Amino acid sequence: MTVLVVAEHDHRHLADVTRRTVSAALALGDAVDVLVAGQDCQAVGEAAAALEGVSRVLLCDDPTYAHQLAEPLAELVISLASDYSAVLAAATTQGKDFMPRVAARLDVAQVSDITGIEGPTTFERPIYAGNVMARVICEDPIRVITVRPTAFDPVGEGGSASIETVPAAQDPGLSRFVEESLTESERPELGAARVVVSGGRGVGSAEGFQLLESLADELNAAIGASRAAVDAGFVPNDYQVGQTGKVVAPELYIAVGISGAIQHWAGMKDSKVVVAINRDEEAPMVQMADYALVGDLFEVLPALRDGLRALKS
Amino acid sequence: MKVLVPVKRVVDYTVRVRPRSDGSGVDIANLKMSMNPFDEIAMEEAVRLREAGVATEVVAVSIGPAAAQDTLRTALAFGADRALLLETEESLAPVVISRALAAVVGEESPDLVLMGKQAIDDDCNQTAQMLAARVGWGQGTFACRLEMGDGEVIVTREVDGGTRTVALGLPAVVSTDLRLNEPRYLKLPNIMKAKKKPLDRRPLDSLGVDTRSGIRMVSVAEPPARKPGVRVADVGELLDKLKNEAQVI
Ligand SMILES: Cc1cc2nc3c(=O)[nH]c(=O)nc-3n(C[C@H](O)[C@H](O)[C@H](O)COP(=O)(O)OP(=O)(O)OC[C@H]3O[C@@H](n4cnc5c(N)ncnc54)[C@H](O)[C@@H]3O)c2cc1C
Ligand SMILES: Nc1ncnc2c1ncn2[C@@H]1O[C@H](COP(=O)(O)O)[C@@H](O)[C@H]1O
């Protein structure tokens, strides 16, 4: 049976998380279609058609989807779902927003945030902040699934899927876009970066994060944060890593002044190498990290930055 | 304006839960239980609307075992006017919970449903959106700011790239994120007062909703263990390990 992947994009570029979702979809079914709904999003349709393993791209280019509001987007997916055995989207704030609407209207369960696929109906997903891995079976006629992007490798390019236009669904008119405030950054995206430098309450202030910035410059890293650092206003909300924030799995995760609460650990425990910089040797992060350096971050970070510079030259 | 707040009784966020050794499930019988933290935020917001004179009634509802009465008493101590427990011993998937909540919405006709974005036990993040879809309402998920407008609610949402603001016609469903507010500390007089407030208990069956679903958990396991780490003495040793041992820089 065919699987439908709902693409994520900014109307110009296909998101990396969709390449990863397609790879999960290929593990599920024999054919994969990708739905691209947006405004002036032809380029995204073409990018999706070039993904390895994609059979068909359904392109719905319509102002209704300019802001990717959950209600109209769900309506469109519902209008297409009956042709598919499963509908997948990334477990991002967007996927989490509209997908449960799709499931509810089909009156089927949703399998959230899967990290593994054992068969067409058997999945692995974390519960209790990732302290427990659950095996779940979903035998609904249409499986509605959100995929944890870090758990799947992105598919490559080289495909040449057909692009078909699909009509917009009726906009239920339940919500209206007002405004958005997106964090501008030259850095790699947090969810996809090879190196993440994350700061916690110990960093002390927004100015303190400058130290992390200068370290991140040397490593071409993204910046992350604990909830405490976000709550204190040191950095914007979209920096939060954790059970209820972003999930990251970089090659290298450097936790600076972060104690290592289970809710934070849940969001970065699949990192390949974890470094803790903390002045408290009893901090859980120090106990759990691959490499722990016990010391004052305000002394350690400049030295680490200088050391990296020296290594490079 | 009437506000409905669904609250779930979950294992307290400070407890580290472990799977049973035979993988058959998670033993929560003797663990500390609390109101789901996101639901506390929803309760707080509802009560603030009540205190501001915007809401005239706040009703808390929970679907769960008899012990979920404690959770509802907490909701009443926050300032809910009354509470409803729909009793079941079964642990039900969000698809079923949303069916039940849709039936409660049918009975109560609230103008606004305020609820958590995620239960920290199942980590599903589904129920609010499912409820909104079932009753045909708009949704404002992951709210960090909520403002009442003229016949609408304006919700600023935490999204992956920053924040996004939407306006929803009422009635609507809003799910809370961490930074919407800081729930109050419950004072003894309020806890005492809560004991006298109405708490209605009914079997979940009384709603007449289908409690079957296509999803079931078949087993649980520990997440893969990480190998033990090492303590490094200084920045020089750290750099050496990262370069030569881990080969990540
Ligand atoms: C429902 C819920 C959801 C949550 N979701 C998340 C989530 O998604 N992500 C998340 O991160 N948290 C989350 N939390 C919060 C979590 O429980 C912790 O409170 C939070 O992670 C703590 O942040 P922290 O480690 O920065 O702060 P703290 O625990 O205060 O730790 C600060 C650390 O900095 C160290 N330090 C201080 N000064 C220095 C210095 N000069 N040099 C070196 N080290 C120093 C201290 O030794 C300490 O270890 C959630 C909580 C709840 C209830
Ligand atoms: N059994 C329940 N009783 C009342 N509310 C619930 C229940 N389960 C979930 N909810 C609500 O739905 C939200 C999201 O839960 P979930 O979709 O399971 O992550 C919670 O924060 C609660 O507000």
List descriptors:
heterodimer, A: 313 residues, alpha/beta, Rossmann fold, B: 249 residues, two-stranded antiparallel ribbon, 13 strands, binds flavin-adenine dinucleotide, binds adenosine monophosphate, transport (chain A), Electron transfer flavoprotein subunit alpha (chain A), ETF_alpha_N (chain A), FAD (chain A)
Structural description of this entry:
- The complex is a heterodimer of chains A (313) and B (249).
- Chain A has 313 residues and is an alpha/beta fold.
- Chain A has helices at residues 16-26, 42-49, 70-81, 93-106, 208-219, 227-231, 262-265, 284-288, 297-312, and strands at 2-6, 31-38, 54-61, 86-90, 110-114, 116-119, 122-127, 132-138, 143-147, 162-165, 175-182, 195-199, 222-225, 252-256, 273-278, 291-294.
- Chain A has two domains: 2-165, 3-Layer(aba) Sandwich (Rossmann fold); 190-312, 3-Layer(aba) Sandwich (Rossmann fold), CATH 3.40.50.1220.
- Chain A has a seven-stranded parallel sheet, with helices on both faces. A five-stranded parallel sheet of chain A has the order 13-12-14-15-16. Chain A has a three-stranded antiparallel sheet with strand order 6-7-8, with no helix packed on it.
- Chain A is elongated.
- Chain A starts with a strand and ends with a helix.
- The model of chain A has no long low-confidence stretch (mean pLDDT 97).
- Chain B has helices spanning 37-51, 68-78, 94-108, 127-135, 188-194, 235-245; strands at 2-6, 9-11, 33-35, 57-64, 82-87, 112-116, 138-148, 152-159, 162-169, 172-176, 199-203, 215-221, 230-232.
- In chain B, strand 7 (138-148) and strand 8 (152-159) form a beta hairpin.
- Helix content of chain B is 27%, strand content 31%.
- The mean pLDDT of chain B is 97.
- Chain B is built from six helices and 13 strands.
- In chain B, 48% of the residues are buried.
- In chain B, helix 2 packs across helix 5 (188-194).
- In chain B, the strands form two sheets. A nine-stranded mixed sheet of chain B has the order 9-8-7-10-6-1-4-5-11, with helices on both faces.
- Chain B has one domain: HUPs (Rossmann fold).
- The interface between A and B is large, with 90 and 83 residues.
- The complex binds flavin-adenine dinucleotide (FAD) and adenosine monophosphate.
- Flavin-adenine dinucleotide (FAD) sits between chains A (200-202, 226-229, 240-245, 257-259, 261, 263-264, 267, 278-280, 283, 296-298) and B (13, 37, 120).
- Adenosine monophosphate (AMP) is lined by residues 6-8, 36, 38-39, 62-64, 94, 97, 115-116, 118-119, 122, 124-128 of chain B.
- Chain B: Keywords: Electron transport, Transport.
- Chain B: One of its GO terms (molecular function) is electron transfer activity.
- Chain B: The electron transfer flavoprotein serves as a specific electron acceptor for other dehydrogenases. It transfers the electrons to the main respiratory chain via ETF-ubiquinone oxidoreductase (ETF dehydrogenase).
- Chain B: Heterodimer of an alpha and a beta subunit.
